Amino acid sequence: MPAEMPFIAIIGAGSLGGALAHTLALGDRVSEIRLIDSEERIAQGKALDIRQSSPVDGFTTLVGASGALAAVAGALAIVVADPAAGTGEYAGEEGLALLRRINAVESAAAIVCAGASQRELMTRALSELHIPPSRIVGSAPLALESALRALVGLSLDSSGVPIALSVFGVPPGDAVVAWEEASVSGQPLAAHVPAHVIAGLNSRIPGLWPPGVYSLASAATRVVEALVTDSRQRHSCFVAVGQGRVASMPVELGPDGVRRVIEPVLTRQERTRLENGLGNF
């Protein structure tokens, strides 16, 4: 692995930040991860635990820790997770103050909001801090998408891996799944899953939100890897959708952040639900 590859900074060594650091290291797609938290000893302990697992898990990613936010300087991507000493994800005034400080130190790196509750934080970052829309993305909808794929797989007595679908809107209440364009092994999903099963899956969406820590960590890992590898794959993520709003949309990602927001292919009913949901905030 090239030594000159940029590193990934994870802000917060809480349960989400620690799980994310480990999951990202396992993928072995980045040369270095920096786990940054004002509770430096906790961050160092988690980084050490991850490093000690590398001979068993077979990854070479260097995992370090710092108590100084200045350590984000030069990062390819900065992931905002949860503080070690806090009670949840960075959000509200604390989250906004953190993003302000991050932006003062590193004004170019893509910012990934890994938490399920950080959509409002993204909205404020766009409107109050004027962070460019292409630079900030939220990965939590990808965890919801993964859960739905798993449920579809169960309905087919199969795995969720060959299933492709996208989540739009604002989970949980205003989430819209584009079932008409969903597929299983490249074939239309609607040909394999009856309408009443799809209706049942739609009704289960509120109960799938917020996703668990490990699902959120896996989703953020996939988004970071897409940023690193310049992937052309689609990922359901929170992004700016105009007029200061943030919602889940399929996107293509690259080293600079969001390269393209993909216009959804929706039925008339699905589009109405999406537009009504976007009008609710």
Estimate the helix proportion, in percent. 25-40%
**H/E element sequence:** EHEHEEHEHEHEEEEEHHEEEH
Main sheet characteristics: 6 strands, parallel
Low-confidence stretches: none
CATH architecture of one domain: 3-Layer(aba) Sandwich
Kindly identify the CATH topology of one domain: Rossmann fold
Mean pLDDT: 93
Report the portion of residues in β strands: 15-25%
What shape does the CA trace take?
A: globular
Q: Would you count the extended β strands for me?
A: 14
Structural class: alpha/beta
- CATH class bucket of one domain: Alpha Beta
Strand order of the largest sheet: 3-2-1-4-5-6
Determine Rg (CA atoms, Å). 19 Å
Tally the helices.
Answer: 8
Describe this entry's structure for a reader.
This protein has 281 residues and is an alpha/beta fold. It has a domain at 8-139: NAD(P)-binding Rossmann-like Domain (Rossmann fold), CATH 3.40.50. The protein has helices at residues 15-27, 40-57, 92-105, 119-128, 140-155, 195-204, 213-229, 268-278, and strands at residues 8-11, 32-36, 62-66, 77-80, 110-113, 136-138, 163-164, 167-170, 174-177, 183-184, 187-188, 235-242, 245-254, 257-261. The strands form four sheets. A six-stranded parallel beta sheet has the order 3-2-1-4-5-6, sandwiched between helices. Strand 4 (77-80), helix 3 (92-105) and strand 5 form a beta-alpha-beta unit. Helix 1 packs parallel to helix 2 (40-57) and helix 1 (15-27) packs across helix 7. The longest helix has 18 residues, at 40-57. The model has no long low-confidence stretch (mean pLDDT 93).
